[in-house]
Amino acid sequence: MQNAESSAVLVAGWHRMGYRYINNNQSLMSKELENQIRKLHGMVGNAVTSGKYILFGAGSTQLLNAAVHALSLHHNASSPPTPVLASIPFYTLYKQQTDVFGSSNFKFEGDASLWMNNSDSNNTNLIEFVTSPNNPDGKLNKAVLQGPNAKAIYDRVYYWPHFTAIPASADEDIMLFSISKLTGHAGARFGWAVIKDETIYQRMTMYIGVNTMGVPREAQLRALKLINVVLQGRGREIFEFGYKTLSNRWENLSQTLSVSTRFSLQKIGDQYCRFFHKVRKPSPAYAWLRCEREEDKDCYAVLKAANIIGRRGGVFGAEDRYVRLSLLRSQDDFDLLLHRLNQLVLEEDKIKTMPIM
Amino acid sequence: MQNAESSAVLVAGWHRMGYRYINNNQSLMSKELENQIRKLHGMVGNAVTSGKYILFGAGSTQLLNAAVHALSLHHNASSPPTPVLASIPFYTLYKQQTDVFGSSNFKFEGDASLWMNNSDSNNTNLIEFVTSPNNPDGKLNKAVLQGPNAKAIYDRVYYWPHFTAIPASADEDIMLFSISKLTGHAGARFGWAVIKDETIYQRMTMYIGVNTMGVPREAQLRALKLINVVLQGRGREIFEFGYKTLSNRWENLSQTLSVSTRFSLQKIGDQYCRFFHKVRKPSPAYAWLRCEREEDKDCYAVLKAANIIGRRGGVFGAEDRYVRLSLLRSQDDFDLLLHRLNQLVLEEDKIKTMPIM
Asked: Membrane-crossing residues (chains A, B) (predicted)?
């Protein structure tokens, strides 16, 4: 039996587990999964996919750079690399990737707003990462650079009803999503891009092909099963659970910090959501905490001293007066975070009410 | 029930399916899989892993570029990019990747042998891809460039007993393997590097992290199950089946072409194999066919006219007088290939014996 299994593995491998899906035009992608992704966006109403291409990648991670590659490809070899920009605070990987890959075609140049009135911006292509909702502060960002040479990559991984109101179906030229932020299965490394332009789609496909020869079938199968679970419940239950959990956490956190003069949170308003058909409260994935005291320039260190581990503002291109706290951990982790923050806030009062020596 | 499933998915995702293995020091890699890979190499005797690092990637594909990145990283920005070289014929992806990624740190420069006496080679770092057994011709290549500045990346994906004799346990500084060539499960996109130097390991780890944040857990689980099947039978059955199949195919092909003056095959000799403990016949993954007639400069076209689809020599940096034929397809495909080649060879005789008009 064991012997039979062993050669059966090899036969199965050679015949049926090759690089390509024989029932989908030798594509590296499952057609069924693509169809379910389109259905999902239609049901949630968070993205227009009709008439657009869908491309799978290793999380949004790989697709970020595939998009930068595609938008900078026909760059003239003699001119400087295409600037890659983002609004501060921005997701740290945008900078890390462009730095590590060291391409001669593009270069991370930081704050997009500094390029709004740049005289070059009419001649040179500009690539802008727009994260909406933004990591770390949850804001529904829009591109700040306009004009025919400004190309935006919309990182839409948090644009699901557990993290934000869905005011409209997003319809940008390049939009990125991931299973990590939809169901939490970050370890499956599965993401997808929704792409309007055929040439950009083909360049990104080429990049993914040469980089990893597509996405593992096992990850595609896992994503299919997960998306089918979401679709079966018409999404209501998973998004309601997620929204309830995260909006409760946000409310508790806001209450805890409402009496503090030392720490402040980003402002997010209530907004009408077309998925829930009602006005809903904030439920961001992260808190973007600011240390308000002049001397608390290193907010990360202030929190760390109280055993609270965040991510320092500098990582997001911002001042270290800011820290990102994740609200996506387990309930135990969140309760501990709240408890420790509460202790810190209580100490503020102690100091205030202490008699002057 | 459906509702419960739906929120259970999200809870499971948040708590247990994150990026990292909590039982392996928050690594992106499964420790159990790493251990089984070491056991596998020990059992087969094809690679020394003791005292070396193991890194997972998306097939060997992603690891190829991770290695180039690591070896070219501390390149001085003002000097020219590090040359990436290979012996002809070489696997086409080496060139494609370096071209597509357009890095300012490295550049594909083709034939390694042209750099053997290059005066620069003592000053400049050189990166040489060594595929052993070679794709396309199955030869057990060794690095042609020597000296302190010559860095070799050994692509060892075909170094298993179904494709070649194992004369010794490979012990190079960077060696790449993949599940695709071990069990045929190319669609799982799982490969691993065996790396001697800690700095190179760390740079490659950084590259994989920033590129895709590791390899999907689903692909790691699949690889673990497959390797366990191979280990259970102590490898004998799967490798014997593979060797028998491929050596039979090679023998049939050789016989068919032995009467041809139009087509020739690469020469591969019998060799002692330390896995099978005996001298064994050739069993390569590919045939590297040469069209011998002066006028058959486009061998691909000659074969295509007879409905035989190969890959043209130019793709491997060689003359188009060569074509690579895959011997890894299903038995039906191989039988058809043999039949059509036989027809072509029979036509040679017809032409020879035709009366001159």
From this structure: none
